[in-house]
Design goal:
Layout (H helix, E strand, L loop, with lengths): L2 E6 L15 H5 L9 E6 L2 E5 L5 H7 L7 E3 L5 H4 L6 H7 L3 E5 L1 H10 L16 E5 L3 E4 L2 E10 L2 E8 L2 E4 L7 H4 L7 E5 L12 H11 L3 E5 L7 H4 L7 E3 L5 E3 L1
């Protein structure tokens, strides 16, 4: 059975955040340790990675991931791409570039930030190698049929993902009508809920809960969580069929 693994459930700073004081109770709960948002799809023919933020090396080692068939980059904010250099191990092992799928403008960002990955190097010097591809609306990778669509992330667009009756929207401030058409009949929805206060580029908790109720998935997991939330303290107050995601959460898709 294909699975989705929440590699990271945290916001762009990670949780705990550097330089901030936390209560003993907050730090005692391992679910309150959140690395930057990313997802692994485990298909019958291989793994598909969604985003590669600064914590990706730790996340992939934790889940014992030995190979990937490709990477989908939802958008190129730092917390979603700044671990792409760590994907060099996959290109070294396979002796071929890592297949990366994203929007054309985000491909330009990757070429600019990781320009060395596309240059010539002396024999024996290994850098990551990427093959950049436009993200299609339907993609077959790892034996999975993946549907992609675009949602608003403030002034930008971020890719949403659907596989079977599972959907993943990690960075979203509005869901356009065309995207909502892909969110019917879901067993599981993973949805952005960055903090308690409204945010210009993300759903905050109230808006996420409103959208979760409208979409009506059998189970909704909230992700991209800041330190506004503590699992033990706040999760009991969530509506039925809504929970906080956590690093390492495994979901059948």
């Amino acid at each position: 059975m294909p699975s989705a693994v929440i590699l990271g459930s945290g916001t762009s700073t990670g949780v705990p955040m550097v330089g901030r004081e936390y209560s003993t109770e907050f730090l005692a709960d391992p679910k309150n340790y959140r690395t930057r948002s990313s997802l692994l799809l485990e298909g019958p023919e291989g793994n598909v990675l969604i985003d590669a933020g600064p914590d990706i090396r730790h996340q992939l080692l934790r889940e014992d991931v030995k190979s990937i068939e490709g990477v989908i980059i939802t958008h190129t904010h730092a917390d979603h791409i700044m671990g792409m250099d760590d994907l060099r191990a996959f290109s070294m092992t396979a002796r071929s570039p890592v297949e990366v799928y994203t929007a054309p403008n985000y491909q330009e960002d990757i070429r600019r930030i990781f320009n060395y990955a596309f240059g010539e190097f002396p024999k024996g010097v290994w850098v990551p190698r990427f093959s950049l591809n436009d993200l299609p609306s339907h993609l077959s990778l790892g034996g999975l049929n993946i549907t992609t669509f675009w949602v608003d992330h403030g002034p930008l667009k971020a890719a949403g993902i659907r596989v079977n009756n599972f959907a993943y929207l990690t960075d979203v401030s509005e869901i356009p009508p065309a995207a909502k058409e892909h969110l019917t009949g879901l067993d599981t929805l993973v949805l952005d809920a960055v903090r308690l206060r409204p945010h210009p580029n993300h759903f905050h908790l109230s808006k996420a809960l409103e959208q979760a109720a409208e979409i009506g998935a059998k189970q909704t997991w909230l992700t991209h969580l800041s330190d506004d939330f503590s699992h033990d303290r706040d999760e009991p107050d969530l509506p039925n069929r809504v929970k906080f995601a956590f690093d390492g959460l495994r979901i059948q898709v």
